Amino acid sequence: MSRNIMILPGDGIGPEIVREACRVLEAVNDSFDLKLNFVDELIGGASIDVYGEPLTDAAVERARECDAILLGAVGGPKWDTIDRAIRPERGLLKIRSSLELYANLRPALLYPQLVDASSLKPEVVSGLDILIVRELTGGIYFGEPRGIRTLENGEREGYNTYKYSESEIERIGRTAFEMARKRNKKVCSVDKANVLEATILWREVMDRLAPEYPDVALSHMYVDNAAMQLVRAPKQFDVLVTGNMFGDILSDAAAMLTGSIGMLPSASLNKHGRGMYEPCHGSAPDIAGQGIANPLATILSASMMLRYSLGETAAADAIETAVGEVLDQGLRTADIYTSGTEKVGTVQMGDAVLAAL
Ligand code: NAD
């Protein structure tokens, strides 16, 4: 049975890093006889330039028919000043909400070879293996009403709405408990229940779910403390579950513990386990077109796709082993380079992973 994979390179370094991930996918497609078909589409600024919108309805319909999606990144200065309603990021929000990709899994795993690339002391980060579970289709990024309005006194006011329903909290909470069961059986739920009513409910729902998972230990932490603990003693965490905005911020902080955001893959799943896979970073316009971006987060996202949406564990293992071997060989893109290692570009890194495969 063949499987269709939608490829959305996006903008900036997106096309460069997705090209390397596709070469790796094509290699395992042949060697493991995966029967993958690749379907190309535009998203973000690339789509705005052609269609005048960041993701067409036709692209969403094609995405619905695919078994999984691999995305690069969207956005860049070229589109920063256009109408907010058609900004590149709107394409991302549209595909996440249209396909109900509510569970964003962001592993922050430190490869032992990269312990010196982290900005934290080796003893603080070595052995780090955290999974951040971020709610992706609710909270303040989607809440209505939202906008910028003019008040009676003529002053303008920006406003957004932070809300979560019980069912939204419950389904992401269950994802976190299920994931913890496959790991070290600890869930830390992050909220701001001392200030925000939406997160008082969040905490209540998490407490209500906990007895259904007696083998998993649930704890709660305020988001400001969680930010501090992530850089103070990050190894205390196993699974960290939180809402959309807090997860956005905390997962970028966790990314740096691992040396570079260029190493971190992510999965965004719906209730059927179908999903979109993408690196945690953005389109990095500052280095786009220079051939120096790290493609490993995207290559590892492809491996998560094989594991979580396609059930191809052996192929996923092979990719992850190959990435480890390349790091063992001392090859590093600029973002993870330390003295004594060999600096390589995007394509050379892709070549090395292919050779290791
Ligand atoms: P960014 O993640 O693109 O870049 C932050 C820093 O990390 C930059 O210095 C960049 O060079 C570096 N970096 C990122 N990925 C890298 C890689 N693979 N290899 C080496 N270095 C890498 O974040 P930003 O600068 O805040 O945003 C740039 C653009 O990306 C904006 O338009 C933003 O809206 C967009 N963005 C998109 C996504 C997404 O598509 N999911 C996520 C975040 C930001």
From TrEMBL:
The residues that hold NAD(+) are: 76-89, 282-294
Q: Which PROSITE patterns match?
A: IDH_IMDH
Q: Which cofactor does it need?
A: Mn(2+); Mg(2+)
Q: In which pathway does it act?
A: Amino-acid biosynthesis; L-leucine biosynthesis; L-leucine from 3-methyl-2-oxobutanoate: step 3/4
- SUPFAM superfamilies in the record: Isocitrate/Isopropylmalate dehydrogenase-like
Please list the residues that bind Mg(2+): D224, D248, D252
Question: What EC number(s) does this enzyme carry?
Answer: 1.1.1.85
Any idea where this protein resides? Cytoplasm
UniProt GO MF annotations: 3-isopropylmalate dehydrogenase activity
Could you tell me the keywords of this UniProt record? Answer: Amino-acid biosynthesis, Branched-chain amino acid biosynthesis, Cytoplasm, Leucine biosynthesis, Magnesium, Manganese, Metal-binding, NAD, Oxidoreductase
EC main class here is oxidoreductase
Reactions the enzyme catalyzes: (2R,3S)-3-isopropylmalate + NAD(+) = 4-methyl-2-oxopentanoate + CO2 + NADH
Q: Which InterPro entries match?
A: IsoCit/isopropylmalate_DH_CS, IsoPropMal-DH-like_dom, Isopropylmalate_DH
Family per UniProt?
Answer: Belongs to the isocitrate and isopropylmalate dehydrogenases family. LeuB type 1 subfamily.
Question: Can you state the subunit structure given in the record?
Answer: Homodimer.
Purpose of the protein: Catalyzes the oxidation of 3-carboxy-2-hydroxy-4-methylpentanoate (3-isopropylmalate) to 3-carboxy-4-methyl-2-oxopentanoate. The product decarboxylates to 4-methyl-2 oxopentanoate.
Cited PANTHER family = 3-ISOPROPYLMALATE DEHYDROGENASE (PTHR42979)
Official protein name in the record: 3-isopropylmalate dehydrogenase
Species of provenance: Gilvimarinus algae
Which lineage do the record's taxonomy fields give for this organism?
Bacteria, Pseudomonadati, Pseudomonadota, Gammaproteobacteria, Cellvibrionales
What's the name of its gene? leuB
